[in-house]
Amino acid sequence: MRGYFGIGSERLSKPHNLGVILRTAHAFGAGFAFTIGSPMEEDAVRQTDTSGSSTHLPYYRWPDFDPTRFPEGCVLVGVELTDDAVDLPSFRHPLNAAYILGPEKGSLSQPVQDACAHIVKIPTAFCINVGLATALTLYDRSILFGGHAPRPLVQRSRSHPGKKRTGIGLNGN
């Protein structure tokens, strides 16, 4: 994967959500993870961070938001369901980025939104869990930068074991 990225959340209140964020960040190869204004008990976080990310991934606990804490050249990307946000599938991820997600019951603070170069949203009818939003955001980034082979235009058809191919498609043709 090219570039680097970090991911974190502002004002997170549930330790299991932080555990999921850390485990997901570790799984997708994040360079760092962080929380802003989110005091957590480490034992509770470890219950869902089953990969032991703390031994593989720098994790920063910041009491408040300060954009100068991020590496030079790191583009801040807010993940928030706002009217003016860009849909995640249409977003061109920066090479070097820090993704900031909002809290479980609320939105990113205005100072964080103002500091972000981009605000993206996952095109859903309503807000989803912050752990799931983390996974979808990082999966989308991995599709863009992961070096995967292009998707084929036509999928290979596979028959089930013991089932004879009939040549009949879904439309009966």
Automatic annotation (TrEMBL):
Ordered alphabetically, the record's keywords are: Methyltransferase, Transferase
What InterPro entries does the record tag this protein with? Alpha/beta_knot_MTases, rRNA_Methyltransferase, SpoU_MeTrfase, tRNA_m1G_MTases_N
Q: What Pfam families has UniProt attached to this entry?
A: SpoU_methylase (PF00588)
* GO MF assignments: methyltransferase activity
Task: Give the UniProt record's GO annotations in the biological process aspect.
Answer: methylation
The Basic residues compositionally biased stretches are 157-166
| Region described as Disordered: spans on this chain | 154-173
Q: Which residues form the tRNA/rRNA methyltransferase SpoU type domain?
A: 10-139
Transferase: is it a keyword of this entry? yes
SUPFAM superfamilies the record matches: alpha/beta knot (SSF75217)
What PANTHER family does UniProt report for this protein, alphabetically?
A: OBP33PEP LIKE PROTEIN, RRNA METHYLTRANSFERASE 3
This chain's protein is named rRNA methyltransferase
